[in-house]
Amino acid sequence: MIKLTNVQKNYGNFRLNMTMELPAGKVSGIVGRNGAGKSTTIKAILGLISTDGGSAAVLGKNPRELTPEDKEQIGVAFSDSGFSTYLCVNDIVRILRNSYKNFDEEFFLDYCQKNKLPMSKRIKDFSTGMNAKLRVLTAISHRAKLLILDEPTAGLDVVARNEVLDMLRNYLAEDPGRALLISSHISTDLEGLCDDIYMINNGEIIFHEDTDVIMDEYAVLKLSADSYERIDKQYILKTKKESFGYSCFTNQKKYYTENYPEIIVEGGSIDELIIMMTEGGND
């Protein structure tokens, strides 16, 4: 569905250099701090910006060569863009009906009803959650094979986030060939949705792993200074100095649990991964 090979983009002191792949039937997440390069990567995938090197393929083609028929297979949602806020949902229905051959109006209207999206109210009067649901619904309503979502749950409360994620899960479950690329800084969204995670920092991928492996095999060790000095460090990926001693990030949780039962071993999460991989020092 998506393949990037050393895709480069330069903005002053910032340089993107991205390699990643998203096959059909898979959900991949991109995580990283603000300014790490997540949105730039998505814009390069969609051909919204010119690149300075490397190659990008979407649905097997250069993004700039996608036909209108190809683009019908792609659904996109950005957290900071959408329809004119002076439109209402009834207006959007007419726009989508004339824009996409495969627009499923019944599906769209049904979801609007289920999610309590008023048909005649201007978007400018929508809540943040209503706006987010509308953006995602618009992206999936023409039965796209490939979804690309940039921070789709940004600014939402827990209930609204879960409703958006449930919408995505249901949509993906309808067709095992559909693929989703999602960027988010909310780790729980990715942990419950993604098959694998790409971490980007300063424009480069610094980590790529299956989500299940992160949750099962990665951990943070909480060590006193004495424990840190005597512990076997061959499986320590990153180390961070703390007031109590050290936090150490590892991908061998079982090894340290079995061989050092006296130390504190906390299960790894994507939040911990971001903190340790971008802040922690090398051992």
Description:
The chain is an alpha/beta fold and 283 residues long. The chain has eleven helices and 13 strands. The protein has helices spanning 38-45, 68-71, 89-99, 105-114, 128-140, 158-174, 187-191, 211-217, 225-230, 253-259, 270-279; strands at 2-11, 14-22, 27-31, 53-58, 74-78, 146-150, 179-183, 196-201, 204-210, 219-223, 236-242, 245-250, 264-267. The strands form three sheets. It has a six-stranded mixed sheet, with helices on both faces. A four-stranded antiparallel sheet has the order 11-12-10-13, with helices on both faces. A three-stranded antiparallel sheet has the order 2-1-4, covered by helices on one side. Helix 5 packs parallel to helix 6. The relative contact order is 0.15. The model has no long low-confidence stretch (mean pLDDT 89).
